Amino acid sequence: MRQMVRSFRDAFAGLFYCFATQRNMTIHAAIGAAVLLLAFVLKVPLLEMLFLLTAAAAALIAEAFNTALEKAVDVATREKNDLAHIAKDVAAGAVLLTSVYAAVVVVIILGPRLWRLLLR
Known about the structure:
Elements: H1 2-21, H2 23-41, H3 46-76, H4 82-119
Helix pairs in contact: 1-2, 2-3, 3-4
Protein backbone atom coordinates (compact mmCIF):
# COMPACT_ATOMS: atom_id res chain seq x y z
CA MET A 1 0.00 0.00 0.00
CA ARG A 2 2.82 2.40 0.86
CA GLN A 3 4.45 1.80 -2.48
CA MET A 4 1.20 2.57 -4.30
CA VAL A 5 0.79 5.82 -2.39
CA ARG A 6 4.41 6.68 -3.17
CA SER A 7 3.86 5.90 -6.86
CA PHE A 8 0.88 8.25 -7.01
CA ARG A 9 2.81 10.94 -5.13
CA ASP A 10 5.70 10.64 -7.60
CA ALA A 11 3.31 10.75 -10.57
CA PHE A 12 1.65 13.91 -9.25
CA ALA A 13 5.08 15.41 -8.61
CA GLY A 14 5.97 14.74 -12.24
CA LEU A 15 2.80 16.41 -13.46
CA PHE A 16 3.37 19.35 -11.13
CA TYR A 17 6.91 19.67 -12.51
CA CYS A 18 5.57 19.74 -16.08
CA PHE A 19 3.00 22.41 -15.30
CA ALA A 20 5.45 24.46 -13.23
CA THR A 21 8.31 24.41 -15.72
CA GLN A 22 6.90 23.79 -19.19
CA ARG A 23 5.09 26.76 -20.66
CA ASN A 24 3.59 24.65 -23.45
CA MET A 25 2.04 22.25 -20.93
CA THR A 26 0.14 25.16 -19.40
CA ILE A 27 -0.85 26.45 -22.85
CA HIS A 28 -2.15 23.02 -23.92
CA ALA A 29 -4.11 22.67 -20.67
CA ALA A 30 -5.63 26.14 -20.95
CA ILE A 31 -6.67 25.66 -24.58
CA GLY A 32 -8.05 22.21 -23.79
CA ALA A 33 -10.07 23.54 -20.86
CA ALA A 34 -11.41 26.42 -22.97
CA VAL A 35 -12.42 24.05 -25.78
CA LEU A 36 -14.16 21.68 -23.37
CA LEU A 37 -15.97 24.58 -21.69
CA LEU A 38 -17.09 25.93 -25.06
CA ALA A 39 -18.26 22.45 -26.07
CA PHE A 40 -20.26 22.21 -22.86
CA VAL A 41 -21.85 25.61 -23.48
CA LEU A 42 -22.68 24.59 -27.06
CA LYS A 43 -24.24 21.36 -25.75
CA VAL A 44 -21.99 19.11 -27.79
CA PRO A 45 -23.18 15.48 -27.64
CA LEU A 46 -21.37 13.15 -25.27
CA LEU A 47 -19.58 11.12 -27.96
CA GLU A 48 -18.19 14.26 -29.59
CA MET A 49 -17.23 15.58 -26.15
CA LEU A 50 -15.28 12.36 -25.65
CA PHE A 51 -13.35 13.01 -28.88
CA LEU A 52 -12.53 16.54 -27.70
CA LEU A 53 -11.45 15.28 -24.28
CA THR A 54 -9.29 12.57 -25.84
CA ALA A 55 -7.60 15.06 -28.16
CA ALA A 56 -6.91 17.46 -25.29
CA ALA A 57 -5.55 14.65 -23.12
CA ALA A 58 -3.36 13.39 -25.97
CA ALA A 59 -1.73 16.81 -26.29
CA LEU A 60 -0.97 16.91 -22.55
CA ILE A 61 0.35 13.34 -22.58
CA ALA A 62 2.59 14.07 -25.57
CA GLU A 63 3.96 17.16 -23.84
CA ALA A 64 4.67 15.17 -20.66
CA PHE A 65 6.54 12.47 -22.62
CA ASN A 66 8.45 15.18 -24.47
CA THR A 67 9.54 16.71 -21.17
CA ALA A 68 10.59 13.33 -19.80
CA LEU A 69 12.61 12.54 -22.90
CA GLU A 70 14.30 15.94 -22.90
CA LYS A 71 15.34 15.56 -19.27
CA ALA A 72 16.61 12.01 -19.82
CA VAL A 73 18.63 13.13 -22.85
CA ASP A 74 20.05 16.05 -20.86
CA VAL A 75 21.24 13.67 -18.14
CA ALA A 76 22.75 11.22 -20.63
CA THR A 77 24.57 13.81 -22.75
CA ARG A 78 26.67 16.54 -21.22
CA GLU A 79 28.12 17.79 -24.51
CA LYS A 80 26.61 18.51 -27.91
CA ASN A 81 25.44 15.30 -29.53
CA ASP A 82 23.69 15.02 -32.89
CA LEU A 83 21.68 11.95 -31.86
CA ALA A 84 20.50 13.66 -28.67
CA HIS A 85 19.43 16.65 -30.74
CA ILE A 86 17.51 14.37 -33.13
CA ALA A 87 15.79 12.60 -30.22
CA LYS A 88 14.61 15.93 -28.82
CA ASP A 89 13.44 17.10 -32.25
CA VAL A 90 11.49 13.90 -32.84
CA ALA A 91 9.78 14.19 -29.45
CA ALA A 92 8.89 17.82 -30.19
CA GLY A 93 7.57 16.70 -33.57
CA ALA A 94 5.33 14.18 -31.82
CA VAL A 95 3.89 17.00 -29.71
CA LEU A 96 3.32 19.03 -32.87
CA LEU A 97 1.52 16.14 -34.58
CA THR A 98 -0.67 15.61 -31.53
CA SER A 99 -1.49 19.32 -31.35
CA VAL A 100 -2.42 19.42 -35.03
CA TYR A 101 -4.63 16.35 -34.53
CA ALA A 102 -6.32 18.06 -31.56
CA ALA A 103 -6.89 21.23 -33.60
CA VAL A 104 -8.43 19.21 -36.45
CA VAL A 105 -10.79 17.47 -34.02
CA VAL A 106 -11.83 20.84 -32.59
CA VAL A 107 -12.47 22.29 -36.05
CA ILE A 108 -14.48 19.26 -37.17
CA ILE A 109 -16.64 19.22 -34.03
CA LEU A 110 -16.95 22.87 -33.06
CA GLY A 111 -16.39 24.55 -36.42
CA PRO A 112 -19.89 24.03 -37.87
CA ARG A 113 -21.56 25.04 -34.60
CA LEU A 114 -19.49 28.21 -34.32
CA TRP A 115 -20.08 29.01 -37.99
CA ARG A 116 -23.86 28.74 -37.49
CA LEU A 117 -23.62 31.06 -34.48
CA LEU A 118 -21.57 33.54 -36.46
CA LEU A 119 -24.12 33.61 -39.28
CA ARG A 120 -27.02 34.40 -36.94
